[in-house]
Amino acid sequence: MTNREEKTGVILLTMEDSEDTIECLASLEKIGRAGVEIILVGNGSGDECIARIRRRFPDINIIHSAENLGFSGGCNLGIRAAVEELDCTYILLLNNDTVVEPDMLDEMTDTLNSAPDIAAVGAKVHFYDRPDVINHVGGVMDPVTGTGTHEGIFEKDAGQYEAIRECDYITGAALFTSAEILEKVGLLDPAYFIYFEDTDWCARARAKGMRVVVNPRAKVRHKISRTMGSLLTLYVDARNRGLYIWKNYPENFDRFVESYARDMVRLLKKFEKEKAYSKILAVVMGLDDFCRGNFGKGRIDEARRIDPRFEPALRTHARLRRLVMLARRAPLSLEKRIRRMVRQGKEHWPARAAGDAPELRLATRGKERVAITT
Question: What is the pTM of this model?
Answer without folding.
Answer: 0.90
